Amino acid sequence: MTRLDVDFVRDQFPAFAEPSLVGQAFFENAGGSFTCKQVVHRLNRFYTQRKVQPYAPYDASTRAGLEMDEAGKRLAALLNVEVDELSFGPSTTQNTYVLARAFAQMMQPGDAIIVTNQDHEANSGPWRRLAEEGIEVREWHVDPETGSLHVDGLKKLLDSNVRVVAFPHCSNIVAEVNPVAEWCQIIQEAGAVACVDGVSYVPHGFPDVRALGADIYLFSSYKTFGPHQGLMVIRQPLAAMLPNQGHYFNAADPRKRFTPAGPDHAQVAASAGMADYVDVLYAHHHNEDAPAAERARIVTRLMQAHEREILQPLLDFVVAHPRARLIGPADAARRAPTVAILAERPGVDLAKDLAPRGMMAAGGDFYAVRLLEALGIDPEHGVLRVSFTHYTTQEEVTRLIAALEDVL
């Protein structure tokens, strides 16, 4: 099957059978996606059958531990990394904070880090705080007209003092997909670590982290059809070099070195449902077996082809509208389906007007205050953001365009 079967996809999500949601189209997926039934099933099973301390010798505890281990193994396989390179935390924001503290322990005054003003604050703020400890913070600026990051700006900032470069796979406002593999190579050739925030990208396909070349890759499972967890890949040998942030007696376990608060057992176990979902989609569309990472790549291509097809009419509408400004590229092939719109009225007000028309969307700054300021946009005014993923239909986008015509 060469096209995504959207009806089959929607059958995998309980929300589309929920009576209270009938008639409403969900366009706030960048804030958190609907949860697939595979995750719901695993979470319910854990809470009803396995809600005990895991890894003890009795049956319920053993099964709990096995399910948690299964989640790590299968998600690592999807991402094409080693099991010990993947760890879970309560959120990506928390994971980044812990990561920055680990780097702070092995950096010296005069060392430098590079952050961007295209990022969500979660991948910027924790690194910026290191300036209080004598670390130099350099900012890679976006183009003030387009919001894009250009590689020349990175090259001007790189030198032998730079230890880390933190940048997004794509912005939660601009949504342009950045050339991660190219930038990672440049960063590493300069002797620095490439830390990539994939939160806004991964809802549109699980990446091959090994192929991207990222030293660190972070994303959130609650935006990828799963429970509220942050997932973090730290490639070896970097993970072994970084100081342990967990209990001292767990220092030898790579999966515990960067989770000082300990994992949420049920949510970690339920995360395996995301891998179940990818497998179900793959099996529905393809007959041949394939390794997990290849299944993820094939499913990603199906997802993205559908998203781009239904995204382009929305982009064309916004670009042509006299009272709207599109943030980011107008070409669906260059971006994720996260569409930020600047209008005469505040984004929050537009979102309120969309709600009675059956459109679930949001307005505001979306924790990208620095980016909005760089684009000359008052964060208090904010933007309207309409965002979708592969379970969205062409009919829903058509309805959204009609609703936007009304409220703009």
Automatic annotation (TrEMBL):
Instruction: From the UniProt annotation, give the residues forming the signal peptide.
Output: none
Is the keyword Repeat assigned to this protein?
Answer: no
| Molecular function via GO | lyase activity
Q: Where is the Aminotransferase class V domain?
A: 26-400
Which keywords has UniProt assigned to this entry?
A: Lyase, Pyridoxal phosphate
InterPro entries, per database record: Aminotrans_V_dom, PyrdxlP-dep_Trfase, PyrdxlP-dep_Trfase_major, PyrdxlP-dep_Trfase_small
Top-level taxon of the source organism: Bacteria
Stated name of the protein: Selenocysteine lyase/cysteine desulfurase
Tell me the organism: Rubricella aquisinus
